[in-house]
Amino acid sequence: MTLPITTRSVPVPGARLHYELRGRGPLLLVIGSPMAAAEFAPLAETLASDRTVVTYDPRGYAASTVDDPDAPSSVEQRADDVNAILDDLRAESADLFGSSGGAVTGLALVTRYPGRIRTLVAHEPPSLLLLPDAAEQRVNTEAIVDTFHRDGFEAGWGHFMANAGFDVPPDDAPPTNPEPSAAEARQMARFFDIDLRPTCYYEPDITALRASPTRTVVGIGADSGRLLTYRTSSALAELLGSAPVTFPGDHGGFLGAPVEFAATLRGVLQ
């Protein structure tokens, strides 16, 4: 049964955020970056049987608009945005599941707003600077951005996916229109020009995370062993002094197996 969805928006400095609520029970935020609310809908629907689940569109994506599309953004700003949603809900605290860039947002939120998050599940954050070959990974990231500027979105995306460890042919990219709309073009450019570097170059404050009242759990996909995010997630878990939790699938396991993924997440949150 599809549960009713309530949509809301909240103004924040430089943007207006779109977010959605479904279900009832303890509050759980489910976030990504750049993945928006729509991509998390199957997981949110499954979790909403016993949770009030909030999903949102990060600023500049889907229905969340920005005043200046060229303005820089930061992980800290994204954390402030999620905190603003909690304020709009008049919620003192919540649990948070963040995947990929959303996991990075969650790490920043925990350190910027101590105690606001009860349990953070950081699923495969791409925190490249935690790796021993961080300098090489920074060079690789800059090369990906250069590919986007030189050869376009499809080539840039293929380069990004190959560097991440996915077995994807260089010409295999998400389908796009031959001539994308202005909004689509802005979002493509935003990923590479505005959000990729801050996300990958964000250094979690390990001391603050370890001292925080928030329980931080690192999640790694069962099939992610070949991926760059397996290495970054393992490095983060080791620095936090805790064992990572294995989730179904790979980096996007919640897309292919939302029911199984939700069961694992419930187990962590309990």
Kindly summarize this structure in a few lines.
By secondary structure, the protein is α/β, with parallel strands linked by helices. It has ten helices and nine strands.
Choose one word for the global shape.
globular
How many separate structural domains? 1
Low-pLDDT ranges: none
Secondary-structure content class: alpha/beta
Average pLDDT works out at 94
Determine the CATH topology: Rossmann fold
Strand portion: 15-25%
CATH architecture: 3-Layer(aba) Sandwich
- The number of E-state strands comes to 9
* Helix and strand run: EEEHEEHEHEHHHHEHEHH
Total helices: the number is: 10
Gyration radius from CA atoms, angstroms: 18 Å
Largest sheet: 9 strands, mixed
Q: Which range best describes the helical content: under 10%, 10-25%, 25-40%, 40-55%, 55-70% or over 70%?
A: 40-55%
Quote the distance from N terminus to C terminus: 24 Å
Question: What is the CATH superfamily label?
Answer: Alpha/Beta hydrolase fold, catalytic domain
At the first level of CATH, the class is Alpha Beta
